[in-house]
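Allow me, if you will, to draw on your knowledge of protein folds for a short while. The matter concerns a single protein, recorded as an amino acid sequence and a row of backbone structure tokens. Kindly check, if you would, that the fold set down in the tokens agrees with what the sequence suggests. You will find the record immediately after this paragraph.
***
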Amino acid sequence: MTAENKIVIAGAGGHAKVVADIIEQKGLFIIAGATDPRPDDAAVGLTLLGDDSVLPSLLASGVAHAAVGLGGASDPKARGALFARLKALGFRLPALVHPWAVVADCAALGDGCQVMAGAVVNPGVKAAANCVVNTGAVVEHDCVLEEGAFIGPGAVLGGAATVGAGAFIGLGASVLPGVRIGAGAVVGAGAVVLKDVPAGKTAVGVPAVVREDA
């Protein structure tokens, strides 16, 4: 493979290990290494190239592709900011789909989307750039994932549900068909969402209740 087939992972923690596995399983790119401002947090098995300041030189050397290695649980805004920086620098951010995931032919995945092992993305789904459908999650027909939406492991979205930009759906949560999760909202782990969640709010419980203090 040429230098243009190399890819750098920005962020070197646990999420990056999963991203690296997808890349290696698919065999489309060679991983040049990972960048991270916290070298002590670098995941085992990833070659740390330095902090994000080395990204321009990597691009200049012919590493044309990049992937976001930050997860969304701790700070979804940081993930979005990193994606925007990589795009602005000129990296190409391919959608990455694990070979054990199922993605319908008519589903649309934007730049930088990541679909992990065991996930299902059904017909009519529209996922904008930088979305994550994590391990074993199910995104049913005609759902809309706006930019940077993060669907946690084992979560289920019913048909035609919408997850707003930068919203986070926690591990094992369920969102009923047609429900909208607003931009920047958070749905707690295991929650069952029966009605819309306003932008920027947090919903937890069964059935899910919007926390007024959040």
